Fold Energy-coupling factor transporter transmembrane protein EcfT.
Amino acid sequence: MTPSAAARRLHPSTELVLLLCGLLLVYGVPSPLVPAVVLLGAAVGAAVTRHLRLKSWALTLLVLAGPMLVMVTIIQGLFYPGEAVHILWSAGPAAITAEGLAVALQLWLRVAAMIGLCALFAFGADAARVFDAMIGLRLPLNVAYVCAAAMNLLPLLRERTARTMAARAARGWDTTSLRVRLRLLPGILSGLLTALLVQLDQRHDALNQRGFGAVPRPAPARFYASGTGQQVLRWSAALGSSALVVLALLDLLPLPTASDFLEVLYG
């Protein structure tokens, strides 16, 4: 990413605040419209941003949220409890109900919105950016270090897994076969995770020896364009999302629930 492109991005603290506010709305407001709007917003963000390909974002959403849609449709659609239900299809003891599908859709929308938001943030972030975001929000250094280290584990794990598979292939294993890869993966991952945890522990010891946390808060690793506008955006998003959740808890937010949609459809 060029410096000019990086300067056009939001400050990492702003991105993190927007992510947390979106998740708060998804799980704090009991209306299917909220996760639907958040998911649509994440899709638009993935389409217009320059540091992420829409295809990669959509594929991540499909792989992670697709099985969830099938599972909740089967569980809620076929086995929704209750007698006062509207049956859409039945075959023997199994029956698909409108109420079950409504619950399944709302559950899936929440999970899909969460995955879409997290993927939008994660594809454009790295360990240094996450650490700088938390430093900018004045979060504890230990929390910032743990989150940044977790972000750093994913590409490292992927790289070492690829190297280990290549080494197995050089020893005669047919790593192009899915059955062989599944057979090798548990042993490879267990060894890699152990090595990564040891490496993280060594890094933490090295940081403590250098006075991590005992000196004034470190400066950001990079320069990020910011200003009064982004500060206003962070505070507005935090206060606005919190107010919406409080209004929803007090039943003062005029947004339709899944039951309201069913009443409109079936009277």
